[in-house]
Amino acid sequence: MRYGFDIGGTKIEMAAFDDRLNQVFCQRVNTPTADYQQFLDCVKTLVAQADMTLHTRGSIGIGLPGVTDPISHKQLSVNVPCLSGHCLGDDLANTLDRPVTIENDCRCFALSEASTEQTRAHDIVFGVIIGTGAGGGLVLNRHLYKGKNGLAGEWGHTPISAQLVQRYDLPLFACSCGLSGCFERYVSGRGLMALSQHFHHQATSVPDLLTHYRQGCPLAQRLIAMYIDILASALASLQLMLDVDAFVFGGGLSNIAEIYQLLPQAMRGWLFAHSQPAAILPPVYGDSSGVRGAALLDG
Ligand SMILES: [Zn+2]
Protein backbone atom coordinates (compact mmCIF):
# COMPACT_ATOMS: atom_id res chain seq x y z
CA MET A 1 0.00 0.00 0.00
CA ARG A 2 1.26 3.47 -0.90
CA TYR A 3 0.34 6.64 0.98
CA GLY A 4 0.63 9.99 -0.77
CA PHE A 5 0.44 13.44 0.82
CA ASP A 6 -0.24 16.65 -1.08
CA ILE A 7 0.63 19.46 1.32
CA GLY A 8 -0.55 22.94 0.44
CA GLY A 9 -0.70 26.23 2.29
CA THR A 10 -4.31 25.66 3.40
CA LYS A 11 -5.08 21.91 3.05
CA ILE A 12 -3.32 18.58 3.46
CA GLU A 13 -4.74 15.87 1.22
CA MET A 14 -3.74 12.31 2.05
CA ALA A 15 -4.67 9.25 0.00
CA ALA A 16 -3.80 5.56 0.03
CA PHE A 17 -3.40 3.54 -3.16
CA ASP A 18 -3.33 -0.21 -3.64
CA ASP A 19 -0.82 -2.01 -5.87
CA ARG A 20 -2.93 -1.26 -8.97
CA LEU A 21 -3.02 2.44 -8.03
CA ASN A 22 -6.68 2.41 -7.09
CA GLN A 23 -7.39 5.02 -4.42
CA VAL A 24 -8.74 3.20 -1.37
CA PHE A 25 -8.58 5.87 1.34
CA CYS A 26 -8.66 9.65 1.37
CA GLN A 27 -8.51 12.37 4.04
CA ARG A 28 -8.40 16.13 3.82
CA VAL A 29 -7.51 18.40 6.76
CA ASN A 30 -6.40 21.99 7.33
CA THR A 31 -2.63 22.49 7.21
CA PRO A 32 -1.04 23.55 10.52
CA THR A 33 1.19 26.31 9.17
CA ALA A 34 2.44 28.02 12.34
CA ASP A 35 3.62 25.22 14.66
CA TYR A 36 6.08 22.55 13.48
CA GLN A 37 5.26 19.97 16.18
CA GLN A 38 1.56 20.40 15.43
CA PHE A 39 2.32 19.73 11.75
CA LEU A 40 4.23 16.52 12.58
CA ASP A 41 1.42 15.37 14.89
CA CYS A 42 -1.14 16.04 12.16
CA VAL A 43 0.70 13.84 9.64
CA LYS A 44 1.21 11.16 12.31
CA THR A 45 -2.54 11.08 13.05
CA LEU A 46 -3.42 10.75 9.35
CA VAL A 47 -0.97 7.87 8.88
CA ALA A 48 -2.22 6.12 12.03
CA GLN A 49 -5.84 6.40 10.79
CA ALA A 50 -4.90 4.93 7.40
CA ASP A 51 -2.85 2.11 8.97
CA MET A 52 -5.72 1.23 11.28
CA THR A 53 -8.45 1.42 8.61
CA LEU A 54 -6.49 -0.53 6.00
CA HIS A 55 -4.74 -2.94 8.41
CA THR A 56 -1.34 -2.23 6.85
CA ARG A 57 1.75 -0.01 7.03
CA GLY A 58 1.87 2.04 3.85
CA SER A 59 4.95 3.59 2.28
CA ILE A 60 5.05 7.38 2.54
CA GLY A 61 5.59 9.93 -0.23
CA ILE A 62 5.10 13.64 0.34
CA GLY A 63 4.65 16.39 -2.21
CA LEU A 64 4.83 20.04 -1.24
CA PRO A 65 5.87 23.35 -2.79
CA GLY A 66 9.37 24.52 -2.01
CA VAL A 67 12.80 22.95 -2.01
CA THR A 68 14.83 20.63 0.21
CA ASP A 69 18.53 21.46 0.59
CA PRO A 70 20.30 18.37 -0.79
CA ILE A 71 23.16 18.62 1.76
CA SER A 72 21.56 19.86 4.99
CA HIS A 73 18.12 18.26 4.21
CA LYS A 74 16.52 21.48 5.51
CA GLN A 75 13.24 22.53 3.98
CA LEU A 76 12.44 25.92 2.47
CA SER A 77 8.69 26.35 2.19
CA VAL A 78 6.94 29.69 1.68
CA ASN A 79 3.39 28.23 1.81
CA VAL A 80 3.90 26.37 5.10
CA PRO A 81 6.27 28.65 7.04
CA CYS A 82 6.66 26.35 10.09
CA LEU A 83 8.51 23.77 7.91
CA SER A 84 11.31 26.11 6.83
CA GLY A 85 14.68 25.38 8.42
CA HIS A 86 13.63 21.91 9.62
CA CYS A 87 14.84 18.53 8.36
CA LEU A 88 11.26 17.53 7.57
CA GLY A 89 12.07 14.20 5.90
CA ASP A 90 14.26 12.99 8.79
CA ASP A 91 11.81 14.20 11.46
CA LEU A 92 8.82 12.56 9.74
CA ALA A 93 10.75 9.31 9.25
CA ASN A 94 11.45 9.27 13.03
CA THR A 95 7.88 10.23 13.92
CA LEU A 96 6.30 7.65 11.59
CA ASP A 97 8.98 4.98 12.06
CA ARG A 98 9.36 4.29 8.34
CA PRO A 99 11.16 5.84 5.34
CA VAL A 100 9.68 9.07 3.99
CA THR A 101 10.30 10.53 0.53
CA ILE A 102 9.72 14.24 -0.02
CA GLU A 103 9.45 15.87 -3.44
CA ASN A 104 8.39 19.16 -4.93
CA ASP A 105 4.68 19.15 -5.82
CA CYS A 106 5.33 19.91 -9.52
CA ARG A 107 7.54 16.82 -9.76
CA CYS A 108 4.79 14.72 -8.10
CA PHE A 109 2.35 15.99 -10.73
CA ALA A 110 4.74 15.01 -13.54
CA LEU A 111 5.32 11.54 -12.09
CA SER A 112 1.60 10.88 -11.78
CA GLU A 113 0.75 12.11 -15.28
CA ALA A 114 3.63 10.09 -16.75
CA SER A 115 2.02 6.98 -15.25
CA THR A 116 -1.36 6.96 -17.01
CA GLU A 117 -2.95 5.18 -19.94
CA GLN A 118 -2.49 8.21 -22.26
CA THR A 119 1.30 8.31 -21.62
CA ARG A 120 1.80 4.54 -21.64
CA ALA A 121 3.58 4.62 -25.02
CA HIS A 122 5.75 7.64 -24.11
CA ASP A 123 9.19 7.13 -22.55
CA ILE A 124 10.15 10.79 -22.00
CA VAL A 125 7.34 12.78 -20.43
CA PHE A 126 7.64 16.36 -19.26
CA GLY A 127 5.01 17.71 -16.85
CA VAL A 128 4.38 21.41 -17.47
CA ILE A 129 2.56 23.28 -14.72
CA ILE A 130 1.30 26.76 -15.50
CA GLY A 131 -0.75 28.38 -12.77
CA THR A 132 0.27 31.03 -10.28
CA GLY A 133 3.84 29.98 -11.15
CA ALA A 134 5.46 27.83 -13.83
CA GLY A 135 7.15 24.57 -12.86
CA GLY A 136 7.54 21.07 -14.07
CA GLY A 137 9.19 17.71 -13.87
CA LEU A 138 10.98 15.29 -16.15
CA VAL A 139 10.03 11.61 -16.06
CA LEU A 140 12.13 9.03 -17.89
CA ASN A 141 10.53 5.60 -18.33
CA ARG A 142 8.13 6.36 -15.46
CA HIS A 143 10.98 7.31 -13.09
CA LEU A 144 11.32 10.87 -11.90
CA TYR A 145 14.64 12.39 -12.92
CA LYS A 146 15.77 14.57 -10.00
CA GLY A 147 19.25 15.88 -10.82
CA LYS A 148 22.11 16.91 -8.54
CA ASN A 149 20.13 19.61 -6.72
CA GLY A 150 16.69 18.07 -7.17
CA LEU A 151 15.89 20.89 -9.56
CA ALA A 152 15.49 19.02 -12.87
CA GLY A 153 12.40 20.33 -14.63
CA GLU A 154 12.55 23.94 -13.40
CA TRP A 155 12.06 25.30 -16.90
CA GLY A 156 10.06 28.28 -15.57
CA HIS A 157 13.27 29.95 -14.39
CA THR A 158 15.21 29.68 -17.63
CA PRO A 159 15.35 32.99 -19.54
CA ILE A 160 13.23 33.94 -22.54
CA SER A 161 15.17 34.16 -25.80
CA ALA A 162 16.54 37.32 -27.43
CA GLN A 163 14.37 36.48 -30.43
CA LEU A 164 11.19 36.75 -28.32
CA VAL A 165 12.33 40.03 -26.78
CA GLN A 166 12.98 41.44 -30.26
CA ARG A 167 9.85 40.00 -31.89
CA TYR A 168 7.44 41.48 -29.34
CA ASP A 169 9.56 44.27 -27.81
CA LEU A 170 9.17 42.58 -24.42
CA PRO A 171 10.35 44.07 -21.13
CA LEU A 172 12.64 41.91 -18.97
CA PHE A 173 10.43 41.34 -15.93
CA ALA A 174 12.29 40.71 -12.64
CA CYS A 175 11.52 37.32 -11.04
CA SER A 176 11.10 36.45 -7.35
CA CYS A 177 13.85 33.80 -7.78
CA GLY A 178 16.43 36.60 -8.14
CA LEU A 179 16.90 36.25 -11.89
CA SER A 180 15.17 38.31 -14.57
CA GLY A 181 13.41 37.48 -17.82
CA CYS A 182 12.37 34.02 -16.48
CA PHE A 183 9.67 32.27 -18.55
CA GLU A 184 7.51 32.12 -15.42
CA ARG A 185 7.11 35.90 -15.52
CA TYR A 186 5.43 35.64 -18.96
CA VAL A 187 3.63 32.28 -19.10
CA SER A 188 2.14 31.92 -15.57
CA GLY A 189 -1.27 33.44 -14.85
CA ARG A 190 0.43 36.46 -13.32
CA GLY A 191 2.80 36.57 -16.30
CA LEU A 192 -0.05 36.64 -18.80
CA MET A 193 -1.68 39.46 -16.84
CA ALA A 194 1.64 41.36 -16.71
CA LEU A 195 1.85 41.07 -20.51
CA SER A 196 -1.75 42.22 -20.82
CA GLN A 197 -1.08 45.29 -18.65
CA HIS A 198 2.19 46.07 -20.41
CA PHE A 199 0.40 46.17 -23.76
CA HIS A 200 -2.50 48.21 -22.29
CA HIS A 201 -5.36 45.70 -22.40
CA GLN A 202 -8.08 46.44 -19.84
CA ALA A 203 -8.65 42.76 -18.89
CA THR A 204 -8.84 42.25 -15.11
CA SER A 205 -8.14 38.51 -15.05
CA VAL A 206 -7.07 35.61 -17.30
CA PRO A 207 -10.72 34.46 -17.84
CA ASP A 208 -11.63 38.07 -18.70
CA LEU A 209 -8.80 38.27 -21.25
CA LEU A 210 -9.91 34.94 -22.77
CA THR A 211 -13.47 36.24 -23.10
CA HIS A 212 -12.13 39.26 -25.04
CA TYR A 213 -10.01 36.89 -27.16
CA ARG A 214 -12.98 34.63 -28.00
CA GLN A 215 -15.11 37.68 -28.84
CA GLY A 216 -12.54 38.74 -31.43
CA CYS A 217 -10.88 41.69 -29.64
CA PRO A 218 -7.78 42.38 -31.81
CA LEU A 219 -5.48 43.27 -28.89
CA ALA A 220 -6.54 40.18 -26.91
CA GLN A 221 -5.93 38.07 -30.04
CA ARG A 222 -2.42 39.53 -30.36
CA LEU A 223 -1.75 38.89 -26.66
CA ILE A 224 -2.88 35.26 -26.74
CA ALA A 225 -0.91 34.61 -29.96
CA MET A 226 2.15 36.16 -28.25
CA TYR A 227 1.52 34.08 -25.11
CA ILE A 228 1.28 30.85 -27.14
CA ASP A 229 4.47 31.76 -29.03
CA ILE A 230 6.38 32.38 -25.77
CA LEU A 231 5.14 29.06 -24.36
CA ALA A 232 6.00 27.33 -27.66
CA SER A 233 9.54 28.73 -27.48
CA ALA A 234 10.03 27.33 -23.95
CA LEU A 235 8.71 23.90 -24.85
CA ALA A 236 10.63 23.74 -28.14
CA SER A 237 13.86 24.41 -26.20
CA LEU A 238 13.01 21.51 -23.90
CA GLN A 239 12.27 19.32 -26.88
CA LEU A 240 15.56 20.21 -28.58
CA MET A 241 17.47 19.38 -25.39
CA LEU A 242 15.59 16.24 -24.35
CA ASP A 243 13.64 15.12 -27.45
CA VAL A 244 10.55 14.80 -25.27
CA ASP A 245 7.79 12.36 -26.33
CA ALA A 246 4.96 14.17 -24.57
CA PHE A 247 4.24 17.30 -22.58
CA VAL A 248 1.38 16.96 -20.09
CA PHE A 249 -0.08 20.23 -18.83
CA GLY A 250 -1.30 21.01 -15.34
CA GLY A 251 -2.17 24.05 -13.21
CA GLY A 252 -4.97 26.55 -13.66
CA LEU A 253 -3.98 27.67 -17.16
CA SER A 254 -3.98 24.06 -18.42
CA ASN A 255 -7.78 24.49 -18.71
CA ILE A 256 -7.33 26.90 -21.64
CA ALA A 257 -8.51 24.84 -24.63
CA GLU A 258 -6.60 26.99 -27.14
CA ILE A 259 -3.27 25.74 -25.73
CA TYR A 260 -3.89 22.26 -27.14
CA GLN A 261 -5.12 23.62 -30.47
CA LEU A 262 -2.45 26.26 -31.12
CA LEU A 263 0.73 25.06 -29.41
CA PRO A 264 1.82 22.22 -31.76
CA GLN A 265 1.80 24.56 -34.78
CA ALA A 266 3.50 27.38 -32.83
CA MET A 267 6.24 24.97 -31.69
CA ARG A 268 7.06 24.10 -35.30
CA GLY A 269 8.38 27.65 -35.70
CA TRP A 270 10.99 26.97 -33.01
CA LEU A 271 12.05 23.46 -34.09
CA PHE A 272 14.06 22.03 -36.99
CA ALA A 273 11.99 21.80 -40.16
CA HIS A 274 11.86 18.00 -40.18
CA SER A 275 11.12 17.44 -36.47
CA GLN A 276 7.63 16.76 -35.16
CA PRO A 277 6.48 18.52 -31.98
CA ALA A 278 5.95 16.25 -28.98
CA ALA A 279 2.39 15.32 -28.05
CA ILE A 280 0.68 18.15 -26.12
CA LEU A 281 -1.67 16.54 -23.63
CA PRO A 282 -4.17 17.72 -21.01
CA PRO A 283 -3.87 16.12 -17.56
CA VAL A 284 -5.73 12.90 -16.75
CA TYR A 285 -5.72 13.29 -12.96
CA GLY A 286 -5.14 17.07 -12.76
CA ASP A 287 -5.42 18.33 -9.20
CA SER A 288 -5.52 14.74 -7.91
CA SER A 289 -2.07 14.10 -9.39
CA GLY A 290 -0.46 15.70 -6.31
CA VAL A 291 -1.33 12.83 -3.93
CA ARG A 292 -1.10 10.20 -6.66
CA GLY A 293 2.41 11.30 -7.71
CA ALA A 294 3.53 11.54 -4.08
CA ALA A 295 2.38 7.96 -3.53
CA LEU A 296 4.38 6.88 -6.58
CA LEU A 297 7.66 8.34 -5.24
CA ASP A 298 10.16 5.55 -4.79
CA GLY A 299 12.85 7.13 -2.65
ZN1 LIG B 1 12.83 33.07 -11.92
From TrEMBL:
Entry's Pfam families?
A: ROK
Superkingdom: Bacteria
From which residue to which does any coiled coil extend?
A: none
Query: InterPro entries from the entry?
Result: ATPase_NBD, ROK
Pathway, according to UniProt?
Cell wall biogenesis; peptidoglycan recycling
Which molecular-function annotations from GO does this UniProt entry contain? Answer: ATP binding; metal ion binding; N-acetylglucosamine kinase activity
* Name of the protein described by the UniProt record: N-acetyl-D-glucosamine kinase
- What is the species listed in this Swiss-Prot or TrEMBL entry? Rouxiella badensis
